[in-house]
Amino acid sequence: MVIYAPDYPGRHRGTAKDGAVMSSEAQEQSDRRSGTRTLIDRMLTERQQMLVLFERVAGVEPYADETPNDELLQEFSQILVDYIASGHFGLYERISEGKERRRGIVKLAEELYPRIADTTQIAVEFNDVIEKANGNSNSGNLTNMLSKLGEEIAVRIELEDQLILEMIGHT
């Protein structure tokens, strides 16, 4: 909800899209929501990039005939880490530092975060294995690791989407 207030000298104010003047409190809330939306958009962009690369690495249609090489695995691993970090150092850090004031969102994040943290651990372990393999990947082991990772990514996306929907539902 945006509160409009009359303009008078010395009042800090912002301007809404329609030209109306907002109170400083409303402007601050609008700025926070905009910052949240930017964090969400960045995370979703990295998620999409990660999913495309995951499909290529895992041989999901339309990439079923593509054999993952070390360069592709490294690229996927890097974007996976970037995606995980954008959530952790973006949305979740914002909530854990008390910058999120909406209690329902904080409560939901507290419920979801332990399981999201589990998915983070699986992704970090995958990244460590890929880095250590350095071109010596065992395709059978890679298939098993990708299967487990894919399941964890699906869980993470489902949990993140719950949080995102709650956050943008209150903008």
Give your account of this protein's structure:
The chain has helices at 24-58, 70-96, 103-133, 139-168, and strands spanning 14-15, 21-22. A two-stranded antiparallel ribbon has the order 1-2. It has one domain (32-168). Helix 1 (24-58) runs antiparallel to helix 4, helix 2 (70-96) packs antiparallel against helix 3 and helix 3 (103-133) packs antiparallel against helix 4 (139-168). The chain starts with 13 loop residues before the first strand and ends with a helix. It is mainly α and 171 residues long.
Quick structural gist:
The chain is mostly helical. Helix content is 72%, strand content 2%.
Strand content: under 5%
Query: Alpha-carbon distance between the termini?
Result: 8 Å
Q: Tell me the total number of β-strands.
A: 2
Low-confidence stretches: 1-15
Task: Describe the main β-sheet briefly.
Answer: 2 strands, antiparallel
Return the domain count.
Answer: 1
What general form does the structure show?
A: elongated
* Helical fraction: over 70%
The protein's oligomeric status is single chain
Q: What is the spatial order of strands in the main beta sheet?
A: 1-2
> Would you tell me the overall average pLDDT?
81
* Rg (C-alpha, Å): 21 Å
Class from helix and strand fractions: mainly alpha
Number of discrete helical segments: 4
